[in-house]
Structure formats: C-alpha cells, structure tokens
Amino acid sequence: MTDIGVQALPLTGERTVPGIPEENYWFRRHEVVYKALRTRCSGGVVLEAGCGEGYGADLLAGSAPTVLAVDYDPLTVAHVARRYPHVAAARANLVALPVRDEACDALVSLQVIEHLWEQERFLRECFRVVRPGGTVALSTPNRLTFSPGRDTPLNPFHTRELSGAELALLVGDAGFADVEILGLHHGARLREIDARHGGSIVDAQVEVTLSGEGWPAALLRDVTSVTCADFELTAGNLDASLDLLALAVRP
Fold this sequence. Notes:
The chain is an alpha/beta fold. Helices cover about 35% and strands about 20% of the residues.
C-alpha cells in the first residue's frame, strides 16, 4: 500500500482515514475486508464504487492490473488521484456509473450502500457494469448490532441499514446469483480488549469522542494496537456480526 503521510483527507466522522492513531480500529476493521477480497479481484478490471480515501483501491491495485475508483466527493477524487498513482480516479454518481455495460471483472463497494437513498437502483447499476461470471462484493454495518432495536439508523449519515437476510435479498433481487453473506466479528484478542473497556471498545471510543476530552492512555494504546488479525470473517452467527459482506456473481 502507498505510504500515507502528509496531506491526509480531513476526518468527517464517516470517511476512514489511515495513519491516524485514533482511527486505527476503524481502519483495520475496513482493511481486513479489502485484504479478504484481493484474490477475488486479481487479474482483471476492478471498479470500486464509493472509494473514500482510496487506500482500499490502492490495496486492490496490488493484484489487479486496472482499478477504477469512483466517488461523488470532488475533494476525495482529487486526493485519490494525487495519492495513489496506480488507481484511476473519477467523480461519479453511484446510481449512474460512468462505465459501459459488462466492463468490469469485479465491483467492490464497502461501507457505502447504507448511505444511499436509491439502493435498488445502485445494485442494478452494479449488475449492469459487471460482466457475466464477474463478482460483486458489498459490505455494510449489520443493522441488528449497529442500530439494535430500531428500524431507523442511529447514524444520521445512514439512510437505510440492513440485516444479513435483507442484504442477501437485495443483492439477489438485483439479478446476482450464488449470494453468500459473511459476518465480521472480533477475534479473541479484541474480545479481551472489549472486556477491559466496559464490554465494548467501540462504545468506549464513541464515549470519549462525544465527551470532547482527551483519550485515556489505556484506550489509545489498545486502539492503536489493533491489526487485521484481530478480526474474524465467517459465515457463522451472522446476526451477531459487526459488519456484513455480500459476495455474489453475475450469471
């Protein structure tokens, strides 16, 4: 991955930016999914829809000869073009992708669909641009654990969150086949860290962020220690997972 240093994008509360100690937990939680997708995205044309800072597209570019990363925010697109020379970056509305029919071998869109008002239309666009036999990979927070007991999201930036069953239905209804849903969980070491911080390192981070006070040294130390190896991606116990990953194929 390209070295990240100066000129990082500003934090928005939604866009994950690498290289910031306080953001490390969220960065690793997203990075582990990109790493899991590398073999599925090797040797072809990959489109990332909603690329954010660009670190994921750059990681995929390590195994795919062509990676096009699109985002609606012009500042983000300019940053990706400047920071990651192996990635082609373009501004686009995700429900009107600037790509011809069946042009992509794989489409990746991680932690994006929950922000979209027209989720069904977006998935139809994904289907359009992926070639027959091509792969789509979509991740999103699990509604059952991210906004428990609610029909509307707790996060004001989210329009509609999904359970594993709801995500599978949405992807299948768009025309994709062989839909598989995986769930991201804390591994053993992260569960130990959860216990040290009142049961949830996520809640501990949210609490200190909302308080406006400085980070406790123990919490910051644990957050910065998190690696991809601290997460587990599995088909089991989906309803208790943190994030969901849908994998599917265009027939």
